[in-house]
Structure formats: structure tokens, C-alpha cells
Amino acid sequence: MSSESYQYEYFNVSFPKQYVAHVEINRPDKLNAFIEIMWLNLSKLIRRMSYDPEVRCIILTGAGDRAFTAGLDVQAASQGLLSGNSPDIDVARKANDIRRHILEFQDCITALEKCEKPIITLLHGISYGLALDICLATDIRLSTTSTRLSIKEIDIGLAADIGTLSRLPKAVSNMSWVKTACLTGKVFDSNEALSIGLVSGVYGSKTEGWTAALELAGTIAEKSPVAAVATKELLNWSRDHSVDDGLKYTAVLNAAMVQTRDVKNALLSGLQKRKPTFEKL
């Protein structure tokens, strides 16, 4: 698979292993802080990978060692949506314009959650604000001992509005911790993130974390892509619905999915004591 077909400004795309895509946020001189074109491009490339038969798992990192992302580029935002200019515009019309902008931003990050392919985020260095919005929309979160995290929006006078306040309470079980982190903007480390279940692994360096992420992605990429897509879909659905609803949806989805040739292939491979391989999705 050639990375040349994935040319998006502020992102590096590579394919370090068969069926594994690596998406690197690439604005290291600004601590990978996001400007508008970045979240628009992230959405475009992730939506494209969602349907790419050459992609079965995605790893998301930031360029350089200093930051995964410092979040939203506040200086750029202060000259745009957060500027407070245009006093002559009717309040209701201005509010409607801001609402549309927020929904578009939310949709771009939600694209990670809706992506058919599992996404592994490796948090490292500074991981503030939008870093939490992004990683919470992905499937597996890994971190390093150097990572520093913060739900920073409250420090610039905002309630986080791109996904953290909606997803974080479902990602961890300690609501007291969630409210403390969101209301104070405190900086916390990977050990604390691990203790409350925000991440599932902590590694001594970005290099070690990358090695672990690549091994994990490779394992996922070897599985039936039909099974992986269905598993992600059912887990996300069941998280947001009752057990009974989850069971019913599973029955409906698997009525189609279990008819795949992958099931027969996997069973025969087990009997023949060989490693199964699966067709592209």
C-alpha cells in the first residue's frame, strides 16, 4: 500500500505492516496543536481509511517527542470563532452559526469513532484538550511515562464541547474523578490515567509505546476483517444501549455476518493447525 495516495496537510500517513496504517499528526513546531484545516483533514483521511480494503487497523500518534497534541491552537481560534468580534450580528444568528461550527468540529472527531476499522491511539508528551476528545473517540488508548494529560478547556473559559464531556463518563467508572478533572483542568500523568481505566497500557518511552502499538495493530490486522468490523460496531452500540437492545442488535447483525467465508476458513485452519488468512473487506 502506498502512502502517496494519502496526501493530507499536517498529517503523515504510512503503512508499517500489512493492513496497518499509521496516521501521524504533523505540526511538531506548534506541539501538534490543531487549526481548522487539521481537524477537517483528519476526518477526511479517517473516513477514507474506513472503506479502504488495504486497512484493517490504524495507529494514531503525534510527530516528535514533545506532544501528541497540545489541543486547539488557541491563538488561531482567538482570531476566528472565539474572537468575539462581529457585534452587529443578531445574537440568535451568531449563536446558530457557532452551533453549526461546533457540530462540524464534533462530526470530524466522531469520524474516528464511526470508522469501521479499530484505531489505537498512542498518547505521548503533552496531551491536552483536544487530545482527550480524539483519543476518547478511538478504540484502544496507550500512553507513555512522559505523557501529561489535561482537560484544559475550563482554563480558557469553556466547557469542553468536542466530545470529552460526553465520552469520558462512559470510558471510566469514577464520576468523582471525571468531574474533578473536568472542573479543575488539572494535569495528570499516565499512571493516574491507567488507574482509572482511561488507558490500557503505559510504556517507558514513545519508542516502546510504538512497538507495543504496532504489535497490537498487527495482531488485530491478522483477524477476520468482517469479525473486527462487527465487533467494533457491536461494542460501541452496546455501550450506548441496554443489554437487551445490544443482544437484539447483535442477533440482527450477525444473522448476516456469520455467513462470511471467514468462519469456515478459521474453523478449518484450527483443525488443520495452520494460521488462517482472510480476504480483504
UniProtKB/TrEMBL annotation:
Keywords: Fatty acid metabolism, Isomerase, Lipid metabolism, Virulence. InterPro entries: ClpP/crotonase-like_dom_sf, Ech1-like, Enoyl-CoA_hydra/iso, Enoyl-CoA_hydra_C. One of its GO terms (cellular component) is mitochondrion. GO terms for molecular function: delta(3,5)-delta(2,4)-dienoyl-CoA isomerase activity. GO terms for biological process: fatty acid metabolic process. It comes from the Eukaryota. Transmembrane segments: none annotated. It holds the Pfam family ECH_1. Pathway: Lipid metabolism; fatty acid beta-oxidation. Belongs to the enoyl-CoA hydratase/isomerase family. This is ClpP/crotonase. The lineage of its organism: Eukaryota, Fungi, Dikarya, Ascomycota, Pezizomycotina.
